[in-house]
Amino acid sequence: MEITMIFMVSGVLMLLSSSANAQAVGSPLLSPTPAPAPAPDFVNLTDLLTVAGPFHTFLNYLESTKVIQTFQNQANNTEQGITIFVPKDEAFSSLKKPSLTNLTQEQLKSLILFHALPKYYALADFKNLSVANPVSTFAGGQYALNFTDVSGTVHIGSGWTSTKVTSSVHSTDPVAVYQVDKVLLPEAIFGTPPPPAPAPAPTPDIAPVADAPTSLTRDGSSPKSSPTKSSSYRIMSWGVLNYLVLAMSDNGGRQIAILRTELLDGNSTGCM
Ligand SMILES: *[C@@H]1O[C@H](CO)[C@@H](O)[C@H](O)[C@H]1NC(C)=O
Ligand SMILES: *[C@@H]1O[C@H](CO)[C@@H](O)[C@H](O)[C@H]1NC(C)=O
Ligand SMILES: *[C@@H]1O[C@H](CO)[C@@H](O)[C@H](O)[C@H]1NC(C)=O
Ligand SMILES: *[C@@H]1O[C@H](CO)[C@@H](O)[C@H](O)[C@H]1NC(C)=O
Ligand SMILES: *[C@@H]1O[C@H](CO)[C@@H](O)[C@H](O)[C@H]1NC(C)=O
Ligand SMILES: *[C@H]1O[C@H](CO)[C@@H](O)[C@H](O)[C@H]1NC(C)=O
Q1: Domain region containing 55
Q2: What's the domain of life for this entry (predicted)?
Q3: What is the domain-level CATH number for residue 151?
Q4: 186 belongs to a structural domain
Q5: pLDDT of residue 201
């Protein structure tokens, strides 16, 4: 039995200025107030990626390649917006081969551009977007990604990389920032990936029938594998966890609050 769920994912970025909102208070006889134009929130990507994460490696690459300017410019462009897939620091540190060490500056730039789409997509949009596979990224035509929606989780394929969106860091039109498990490696740089090592057994992405008591031992690298898998783990496991990341930026004494949305699946049924 398949469970289709729509995750209502909303990222909220609030800028609370210390100065009170200068709304006219108290004189009800003012002429009809024009509908306050909802000024699109300006998202400073550098600040956002500094606070969330840890995304320091990606941010360093963004800055060293100057791609941050391209992305910020696009983020300011409220017509199209931007969608950025950000690998965590450990995704970079666990990257063994191919490695990024021998890339030219130009290739590095393309690799970082490869992590973004020049348009805002909410998570719910990826189901539709998948019919357009492969989807061109900010790096251009041959730098394309495949998207698939598996029960509400967005899976991303680059040929070399197969990963998924694990967290929505920020998703308010025009800016979406999603955390991914792995660095996206384009075929346009690394060539065609070698054929996969003879797989012991094809692991079905979706079990044909639920409740098959497969022990699901993926990569033996899970330090704490909670043995609390009941037959209903599939249902229990889909959930959304919201928490607030608060940080101060000394930027005019403003405070940034990020509503962070974690998409839980697999064995994360336990509490945190
Ligand atoms: C974003 O914030 C950083 C540091 O807080 C600042 O250096 C940078 O100029 C800001 N960028 C924009 C586009 O405002
Ligand atoms: C983006 O918009 C902010 C605020 O309007 C502005 O300070 C910044 O220079 C813009 N950055 C780019 C790259 O367009
Ligand atoms: C990087 O270059 C060094 C020397 O030029 C070479 O020994 C090494 O194998 C290269 N690494 C990769 C991943 O290509
Ligand atoms: C997906 O595409 C269909 C047909 O093209 C359209 O009717 C629907 O509104 C789209 N859904 C979203 C979430 O964009
Ligand atoms: C995307 O999927 C198509 C067909 O499903 C495949 O031919 C292509 O190699 C895939 N591209 C990437 C980058 O994964
Ligand atoms: C369970 O969690 C571990 C580490 O948190 C992870 O490596 C593993 O892939 C997860 N398993 C599933 C089925 O999601």
Answers
A1: 44-190
A2: Eukaryota
A3: 2.30.180.10
A4: yes
A5: 59
The answer as to whether 240 is a domain residue is no
Residue 160 lies in a domain: yes
CA pair distance 247, 172, nearest whole angstrom:
19
pLDDT (tens digit per residue) in 83-137: 999 999 999 999 888 889 889 999 999 999 999 999 999 999 999 999 999 999 9
- For 161, counting Cβ atoms within 10 Å of its Cβ (0-12 exposed, 13-18 middle, 19+ buried), the class is buried
pTM: 0.64
Ligand 3 atom 11 nearest Cα: 102
CA 196, CA 265: separation in Å to the nearest integer?
25
Burial environment of residue 122 by CB neighbours within 10 A (0 to 12, 13 to 18, 19 or more) = middle
| Count of domains for the chain | 1
In a domain, 209, yes or no: no
For ligand 3, atom 2, name the residue with the nearest CA: 102
Which band of pLDDT confidence, cut at 50, 70 and 90, is reported for residue 40? low
Give the separation between CA 167 and CA 40, rounded to whole angstroms: 23
Tokens for 154, please give them: 């967005």
What length does the chain have? Answer: 272
Is 247 within 8 Å of 256 (Cβ atoms)? Answer: yes
Contacts of 108 (CB under 8 A, 6+ apart): 61, 64, 65, 100
